Amino acid sequence: MLVLFAVNTIDRNRDWSDELALLQKTMHRSPESPLANQKLGEVLGKKGRYAEAEALLKRALEIREQALGPYHPNVAQSLNELAAIYQFRGQYAKAEPFYNRALAIWEKVLGPDHPDLARSLNNLAELYLDMGRDNEARRLLERADSIRESQ
């Protein structure tokens, strides 16, 4: 019995060798987990594997919307991550509606002065800076700073 546990432990250690391996194994075991889809998508995005990341993040968003409804903070989180992938790829027009929708959810759920809202404002502001829309970015950054100062 001890030998079987030892073999299983050695086998499982490979799964924990790095974040990517762990998340891939988790996805294999729980392909409908929105968190597994999201986290693996985030890791692949950081590695520049944007097409794979996009597919996983879209799936996480779909699962979360079905399970939680359209105005849940986890949905906003998925929208932000998907928007970031588009932004990294230079697909700014695709990213903008996702950031805007996430911002609207945060405002509705948390209120207009919540500190977490400032992070979403910064995300959209960074996109606007990338797009050369400096005045809009400045307005969002000022609002984010105002929220942080009030907290």
**Share of residues in helices:** over 70%
Radius of gyration: 19 Å
Global structural class: mainly alpha
Main beta sheet? none
Low-confidence stretches: none
Q: What's the end-to-end separation, in Å?
A: 57 Å
Strand content: under 5%
Number of strands: 0
Q: Report the total helices.
A: 8
Helix-strand topology string: HHHHHHHH
Global geometry: globular
- Mean of all residue-level pLDDT scores: 88
Description:
With 151 residues, the protein is mainly α. Helix content is 83%, strand content 0%. It has 8 helices and no strands. The protein has helices spanning 2-15, 19-29, 34-46, 50-68, 73-88, 92-110, 115-130, 134-150. The radius of gyration is 19 Å and the shape is globular.
Short synopsis of the structure:
The chain has 151 residues and is mainly α. It contains eight helices and no strands. 32% of the residues are buried.
Features of this protein?
83% helix; globular; 151 residues; mainly alpha
Task: Please describe the topology of this protein.
Elements: H1 2-15, H2 19-29, H3 34-46, H4 50-68, H5 73-88, H6 92-110, H7 115-130, H8 134-150
Helix pairs in contact: 2-3, 3-4, 4-5, 5-6, 6-7, 7-8
